[in-house]
Specification:
mainly alpha; 9 helices; globular
């Protein structure tokens, strides 16, 4: 696993001794368990998930570009096109996940209070489905299947990089390639950073659409404890979406019942007045 040597590099070369501290290890252990549960869920429901993804894609009836569109284009150019497109789709899907009803699917990723390379794997399988389907639709439309493996690997490696506990900022390239310093604000447990720095690879999307936030180096607490999301209990992290949606539906149900009672009360009072 690539995250292991990354952790060791940060510990020995960068000098971040807390990288192997008790708090970091506890969070990493929870991340590994969450990833394991995701893998188990994927193995158990692979056919259903794949069938749903295929049916959802074909039902959209999206016409694709001609299969030979990029036949004479160098592979590296097609890969860059794939990364730019994937990150654009990821940005908007990620932004949607910071809204009320999709937030529970994304909350697992924000539950880590010690963000490092392993945080990449702290993702609920429901989020994985949504994110993967969204960008595969875009990349399939572009007709670049030969570039998808390269795009996926590059994106995965960069994702581990931006979660590293280091202060790299990228200087003049900071709007083109996301840095660990930029992404750290996305995980900060402070209201002003919520829903900010949503681009995975290219911060220019945040700049264009008003979600860029980088006042200074981030020294804030990581995670989402203030929102009531557990950081070290993998079971509570994994069931959080279902628990949260249950609460939201019950709340909606109570409001609907109260509204119905108010309506019935007004209706009865109208009948009484009419009778008088």
């Amino acid at each position: 696993m690539l995250a292991v040597p990354i952790i060791l590099i940060v510990y020995f070369i960068v000098g971040k001794k807390e990288e192997l501290g008790r708090h970091a290890i506890q969070n990493t252990a929870a991340t590994i368990v969450v990833a394991g549960i995701n893998l188990l869920a994927a193995l158990l429901f692979f056919r259903e998930i794949n069938a749903f993804a295929q049916s959802a894609y074909w039902s959209l009836g999206i016409p694709t570009l001609p299969a030979d569109t990029w036949a004479t284009t160098p592979l590296w150019v097609v890969c860059i096109l794939g990364i730019v497109t994937k990150d654009f789709v990821d940005y908007w899907t990620h932004r949607a996940m910071h809204n009320k009803w999709l937030w529970p699917t994304h909350a697992a990723h924000h539950s880590d209070t010690y963000v490092n390379a392993f945080t990449t794997y702290r993702v609920h399988f429901l989020e994985t489905i949504v994110m993967t389907v969204s960008y595969l639709v875009a990349l399939t439309w572009l007709q670049i299947p030969h570039a998808i493996p390269f795009v996926a690997v590059l994106a995965a490696v960069h994702n581990m990089y931006v979660h590293m506990n280091i202060g790299f900022e990228h200087g003049p390239l900071k709007y083109l390639i996301a840095s660990p310093a930029f992404h750290r604000w996305h995980h900060a447990d402070v209201p002003e950073a919520h829903g900010k720095n949503l681009a995975n690879v290219m911060p220019i999307y945040d700049l264009m659409f008003g979600t860029y936030y980088y006042p200074h180096r981030c020294t804030e607490q990581m995670g989402a404890l203030k929102s009531g999301i557990e950081d070290k209990n993998p079971i509570l992290i994994w069931i959080y979406p279902f628990h949260q949606w249950g609460r939201m539906l019950r709340r909606r149900g109570r409001k609907a019942v109260a509204a119905l009672r108010r309506w019935r009360g007004k209706d009865r009072s109208t009948d009484v007045t009419a009778a008088e």
